[in-house]
UniProtKB/TrEMBL annotation:
Residues 34-69 form the Leucine-rich repeat-containing N-terminal plant-type domain. InterPro entries: Leu-rich_rpt, Leu-rich_rpt_typical-subtyp, LRR_dom_sf, LRR_N_plant-typ, LRR_R13L4/SHOC2-like. Keywords: Cell membrane, Glycoprotein, Leucine-rich repeat, Membrane, Receptor, Repeat, Signal, Transmembrane, Transmembrane helix. Its main location: membrane. GO terms for cellular component: plasma membrane. It comes from Glycine max (Soybean). It holds the Pfam family LRR_14. It comes from the Eukaryota. PANTHER family: PHYTOSULFOKINE RECEPTOR 1-LIKE (PTHR48052:SF70), UNNAMED PRODUCT (PTHR48052). The lineage of its organism: Eukaryota, Viridiplantae, Streptophyta, Embryophyta, Tracheophyta. It is a single-pass type I membrane protein. It is found in: Cell membrane. This is Uncharacterized protein. Belongs to the RLP family.
Amino acid sequence: MGFHGFFLFAILIPYISFGTSSHESQNLTSSSLNDLEGLIGFSSCLESAIPDWNSYASPDYCTWSGVTCVGTSVVRLELGSTRLMGKICESLVGLDQLRVLNLSDNLFTGSLPNTLFHLQNLEVMDLSNNHFEGPINTAICSSLPQLRVIKLSGNLFSGKIPGNLGNCSSLQHLSINENNLSGSLPGSIFQLQYLRVLLLQENKLSGQLSKGLGKLSNLVEFDISNNEFSGILPNIFGSLTRLKFFCAEANRFTVLVSLSNCLRLEGIGHGSDHLHCGEIPVNFKKLQSLTQLSLSYTGLHNLSSALEVLSHCRNLSTLLLPWNFHNEQMPQPQGQNIVFSNLKVLVLSNSQIKGSFPKWLSGCKMLQMLDLSWNHLTGSIPSWIGNLNNLYYLNLSNNSFTGKIPQSLTVVLSLQLRNLSLEQTTFAFPFKMVGNVNIYKRVSSYRPSLVLSYNKLEGPMWPGFGNLKSLHVMDLKHNSLSGPIPWQLSGMVMMEILDLSHNKLTGEIPQSLIELSFLSSFDVSYNQLHGEIPEKGQFDTFPPTSFQGNMDLYYSHDTSGFILSPPDETCAQPHYQKLEIIGFPFWFGGVAGFLITIAMCFTSGWLFS
Ligand SMILES: *[C@@H]1O[C@H](CO)[C@@H](O)[C@H](O)[C@H]1NC(C)=O
Ligand SMILES: *[C@@H]1O[C@H](CO)[C@@H](O)[C@H](O)[C@H]1NC(C)=O
Ligand SMILES: *[C@@H]1O[C@H](CO)[C@@H](O)[C@H](O)[C@H]1NC(C)=O
Ligand SMILES: *[C@@H]1O[C@H](CO)[C@@H](O)[C@H](O)[C@H]1NC(C)=O
Ligand SMILES: *[C@@H]1O[C@H](CO)[C@@H](O)[C@H](O)[C@H]1NC(C)=O
Ligand SMILES: *[C@@H]1O[C@H](CO)[C@@H](O)[C@H](O)[C@H]1NC(C)=O
Ligand SMILES: *[C@@H]1O[C@H](CO)[C@@H](O)[C@H](O)[C@H]1NC(C)=O
Ligand SMILES: *[C@@H]1O[C@H](CO)[C@@H](O)[C@H](O)[C@H]1NC(C)=O
Ligand SMILES: *[C@@H]1O[C@H](CO)[C@@H](O)[C@H](O)[C@H]1NC(C)=O
């Protein structure tokens, strides 16, 4: 018994003696004693105190934090995010009227006690984001028939999904994502006719998915990503007409079989030894409610048919299809047969897609985020891109775009507004990298960025870029940009990362750039710049490597008279180390803050209404 429990037990003694000798004044029923005992017993198993549960001043447990009563019966126990440690013990069974048990986001350990499954009135069980382990008790549905919500995500549960889940016939929400569950999906799950949310991502679930999934006709959110499901992803989408969110990436599916056209994907993460082959099923057209679709890394092919099918999903706002369509041609249909009027986020990266910039995007006026990086796109970046007034993130890195940077980008409205709100895009999605490393990013973690690095762009840097007051990242490295760095860039007041390295820029580094007070990373190495390196402001924190490989750049206070020109690189060592000590924390802070790595496809902050 922890210290705290002992303290509460001391309160219980006068309570009991008083209660038995004077029923009338205290009005204690046996049920209220059970509730009190239940709470005290629960508390006594903890290794940490519960705020407000330790006072003689409030013997009425119904006023304790997180406790809600009807009469003297506890009906809700809600202690989420209170840093509670320890185990849940048997005594909780005393709360026989409990309907809502919410212990999410704490530090609970151990397995779930059997008595938890005697709480016959329980409707909501939220134990997500703790360190619970062991199997999910098979009693969960045979004993708790009223359960509407089961949230066990973000724990260490292992073993199989209980086969009798179908007995939780009232179940609307089941999230057991981010655990260590294995085995196949029990067929009884398909009996849950009220199920709206089914989140299974990030486990080790395997086997084939049955067509029975199509019976879950009320399903709104469905995520099976990052598991080991194999075989054919059943074409059940004709019946899941309420589906708004579907995520199935990083499994071992062959989406639909047409085997002669299959592509063998090699060397991309796990699953590389599997034959992937499939198209977006035509009856995806029926998913009129679909708002978000993430099928990255599923071995899809036929981009042209995928876009045609998905353009029928009028409400589609997020489309994430990276690592698919290997080596295909970017479709450029004539006329208006691809229209995504509500599309806000499009990720079609890492696919070595050939051809030119997609013209059909000019109709996507809502577009906020466009990632076409790591493809083989050629030709120029069209100037109509400046008409996409909501765009705040553009990543065209590592293509073969030529010509000038469209001047129209300097007037993209959302990049000009300083008070830009990214709240519309709070959902999360996984972003896969080569190898076995999965990187997950929340869309809202993408800061306003203009990334055109590793292309063949030439021409000037427009002075108008200074208008982009909300831009945080400008990465133009490895192009052939020429002319001076405009002094007006000091207008990009939110700038954190400015990388202009490996271009053909000339002139001096404008002194005005010292005004960029958020700048944590700056790189102009390997250009043809000359003159004094600005001092003061953030410039005191950038390492000499940011300036190397230029014509004639120097520090005015450099007593050694050292000039950062290419042949002298090796001599830079002592100087470099001195400055690096100052520069590193700034640089690190900026980058670490940007690449927010989260271990889930959704976060609690995001839910469909
Ligand atoms: C006291 O008990 C009586 C009879 O069981 C019940 O009607 C009444 O609501 C109780 N009072 C309180 C404050 O719980
Ligand atoms: C549990 O409590 C947390 C806050 O601590 C809340 O965000 C969450 O929505 C609750 N769970 C349910 C199922 O209501
Ligand atoms: C659970 O459901 C099965 C049928 O799926 C049924 O045979 C069994 O009696 C149910 N168990 C309980 C406890 O309701
Ligand atoms: C996951 O479960 C397997 C057995 O299915 C077990 O061997 C392994 O240790 C578990 N991993 C963790 C991190 O709990
Ligand atoms: C599409 O979105 C609009 C606006 O949010 C909504 O009113 C409409 O019901 C949605 N259509 C479908 C088929 O879900
Ligand atoms: C792609 O799909 C379209 C329409 O379904 C079809 O006409 C075309 O032949 C397919 N292309 C390939 C390469 O399979
Ligand atoms: C742009 O895309 C590349 C390749 O996908 C990625 O590595 C890089 O982090 C992206 N840049 C930003 C600022 O998001
Ligand atoms: C560019 O993309 C190719 C794959 O298309 C990849 O192998 C290469 O590493 C990428 N280069 C950079 C600099 O990101
Ligand atoms: C943003 O700023 C503009 C002008 O500065 C103002 O008109 C607009 O109302 C602001 N929007 C928000 C959401 O604060």
